[in-house]
Amino acid sequence: MRILLFLLLFFWAATENLFAQKFPEHNEPDKNAKTNAPDPAILVHLGYGFHFPGGDLADRFGNAGTLGGGVDFIFKNNFFAGIDGHYLYGTNVKEDPLEPIRTDSGFIIGNDLGIASVVLRERGYYLGGQVGKIFTFGGQKRAGLRVTVGGGWLLHKIRVQDDARSLTQITGDYGKGYDRLTSGIALNEFLGYQFLGKSRTVNFFAGFEFNQGFTKSRRDWDFLAKKKLSGNRVDLRYGFRVGWTVPFYLRKAAQIYY
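The structure corresponding to this sequence follows.
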């Protein structure tokens, strides 16, 4: 999570710095060039997604949203490579790791001997690299079908939210026995539409996203199961993603026009 936040802050700082300077979004054709292929560019993305769970993930969580972004380097032939990261969040938690400390009526008694107000949330992230291509049509140079494949790291857990901090049972190392922290390598695919317009104010993408995580529990003990959760999991997510793209076009090696 710290890595994802650092990358997002870095992308934001880079964008702010470059926006403070004037630069053309699309280059004028070079009369001396053999082709009018578009220049290489750095693409900064910010996006929102909504995903449905599948596999083992569907037993633990319901639908969830994602926020994140990434950076791609796109070549003249519209192939690109980059990094991509998303923060996962949701409110539909199907498993109840707090069952051992609930009363017969389903309540949890806090330190003040009152009924504690505790909610469960889904939290996590995906961070990885990707390669792909924009397949253009209709005479467009940088607008068309965006196809991406990649791989990285998927992590998710159950967040036990106790705003009043009235439960000693879930603080410190005790909390690790309830959060079911899970992580592992993952694959990610995207299929959609990418548009990079001549005006820097109109650059976006939208499409369908698929994620396959090959994960396992990262905790030594689970209080509900009364043992370490063992075995491999297959956590699936599928849904859609939309976002805004900020392109920075390059004309000569190691030179950015602005």
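The longest strand covers residues 233-252.
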